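Appendix B.2, paired examples.
Example (i):
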Amino acid sequence: MTQPTPLQGEHLRNALALAASGVPVLPLRAGKVPFGNCRRCTDNACGGRPNMKTPGPCACPGLCHGWSAATTDPHIINSGIWRRAWMAAAAVAYHPGGAGLTVVDLDDADAITWARENLPTTQTVPTTRGEHWLYLGAMPSANAVLPGVDIKSTMAYARWLGFGTGTMTALPDAVRALTVKKPAEVRPAPQAITVPAPAGGGECRHRTPAYLDRGIAMAEQRITGASSAIHTTVYRTFLAVLSKHGRCGCLTETHVARLFTAAQTKGETARHCTDAWTNARTRLGL
């Protein structure tokens, strides 16, 4: 029988010691990746755990479902299948939420500086690139809550890197708040609109009013759907509308007001709307 290397034997000993203290563990492959689902469990075909919300192995004897395979059962950890996994393991991982813990994963120096300025001191573990700050208490996990900051607790795993230094403190509200979605930004109410005179005077080439209505509706959607470069989007939309409908008598004050209202809903001022409209007309020689 192949004997484990000293390092692999240490992984198993650490896993058993953590499990004895109530920390669910699992082996990690190189690259900090858990052992993948077996063929029987691909795409959760075995049924797994309901919505993957409860830790522990599924009915399959393999190491399945990432964090959900974590266990504190020494018989499972030291079983034949798991022992073979420890032979190939590169590290030990644990399920923080299953142990009632939260890990604030700080990936770089800037993130560490932020934590020192904003979070209460707690048990700290050095990592390859930064630090893990461990708090007593579980919460939902989330990635990239701030630049270089991840939260690992429920439904997640973290690499075991030792006990670190310091005394673990209770999970603060400042950490819990990091995963709370901010309410949608409230846009200012549109200002009273002074609609510039519509362009036109030429012969109308459009067969029905519905053609123009569809064009205005599409222009409104383009403006309200923009997530960045709002000024540019508004100007280009006005330019597109005027290039299509600006040389005939189709456009009315109602149509222009709809476009201005859409722009102001995205935060544009009435002045910006008027300037964009005027610049678009000038560009087209209207």
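Example (ii):
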Amino acid sequence: MKLEKITGKVRRRFDDACGTAHGLELLGERWALLIVRELMLGPRRFGDLRASLPGLSANVLTQRLEQLEAAGIAVRRRLPPPASVQVYDLTDWGREAEPIISELGRWAARSPGHDPTLPLSPVSMMLSFRTMFDPGKAGSARTALGFRFGAESFVVRVADGVLIAARAEPNGVEAVITGTPEAVAGAVYSDGAWPPEGLRIEGDAVAFQRFARWFELPPKAPAA
């Protein structure tokens, strides 16, 4: 393996024509794939990214964003007035990485060492809905639910076996669930008591209870 300098930083080169090897060159640096994950539901400010990835230093985040921009995966732009703030977003090609993130998450969730009680970012929770949704369990059901995690709001809609999760104000929904991503994950992926602790549900709580039955973590792989 050789090391190559890109935008002044040392990056891995594998000298391997396989697309998997080049994919690791693009997204294999520590934190790079998680930054892409956090941009998957729309543009974010630098501070927003740091808040969602608390273990990531400002210096490393700057380096990774520069590398993602240089590779054509992310782009930096300024929102129009009245916001007029600089944000980072994925390019159309960068957004195509979502199936990679989803399938890696589904595969890794089967690990005996995976701990689903660890912290989650709001975007990670929404992508988990997209990944673990079982259309067969939902059938022809329709629902629209809002989720508030601090200052961040999302709407999840299910119709005819298709789930859409997007960053939006929860208007015109059956229920609004307020709390932490970890509390929502506990309500959806565990068999705990209902109503779940740590969540406030405004509106039709039964709609959220029904929604929670449409998800399931994959079975654990056999231990070695």
